[in-house]
Amino acid sequence: MRILVVEDEKNMNRLISEAMKDEKYSVDSCYDGREALDYALAVDYDVIILDVNLPKMDGFAVVEKLRSEGCVSPVLFLTARDSIADKVTGLGAGGDYYLTKPFSFDELRAVVKVMARKYTGNRTDEYSIADLTVDTSARTVVRAGETIELTSKEFALLEYMIRNRGVVLSREMIEDNLWNFDYEGGTNVVDVYIGYLRRKIDKGFDKKLIHTVRGTGWVLREDD
After folding, report:
1. pTM higher than 0.85, yes or no?
2. Helices then strands (H, E): number in the chain?
3. Domain at 85, CATH number
4. Which 8-state DSSP code applies to residue 174?
């Protein structure tokens, strides 16, 4: 998953970002409302963690603008503003969840997972297609009863594909969702990781699940 952390206090931004990276999420971070708007309109984030008291544009105004522009990424307000009026304003502006500071990092992790599940329409942490099952919480992959070991980036790619099973994913879509803005990799990095994943997921099985759509991208699907 790809997460955007918007918090103007740099040490807190770093702590939240590190907590999300510990969950193997791809994380972008920024420090003011206008920058948050630019980031969120450029990428479809799985969850946006957003402070309210931000320089240049406050969090409520950011969400109102995002929703008016058609952005549907789930927004978690993470703020010291804990009045009922603030919570009503934040949720009314288009926020999905309101968590007040001080907060528990365990609670933050749990809320982010629930929000991401709701966004994808999956009610559990397990995703399945054919005889392949991916548990995004336990970070396990099983095909035909056999456990498959993946690296963190391979798992992230498979998770993105199975969350969007049946959808053709372009190279740009995969790059945008698996690598943050600081990434400076080669132009064929997606092809390389698709190759790694194919060898681990499809090799030795008659039914292939990862398919190339020539000139467009790749799709995870169960062909008849």
Report:
1. no
2. 8, 11
3. 3.40.50.2300
4. H
